[in-house]
Structures are given as C-alpha cells and as structure tokens.
Design goal:
The protein is built from no helices and 2 strands. The two termini are 28 Å apart. The protein is flat. The protein has one domain. Helices cover 0% and strands 11% of the residues.
Length: 38
Amino acid sequence: MVFNKKTIEDVIVKGKKVLVRCDFNVPIVDGLITDENR
C-alpha cells in the first residue's frame, strides 16, 4: 500500500493561516533538552 503524503512544498499556503505542530520526541526539562540521543 502506498501513501502519498503531502509536504509543505505541495501545499499553497500563501495568505492562509497555518498551524504547525512539532513533536521533538526528546526529554525536555526547564526548556532544555536533557538527552539528545534519540
């Protein structure tokens, strides 16, 4: 099964509001990454 996932380059966002969710998936304490080995 093939999924065609769109990237930011495939979508026209000029003049639109865009919500971006970013999951760093690293442990953060007091705003600092405590282990960057992931």
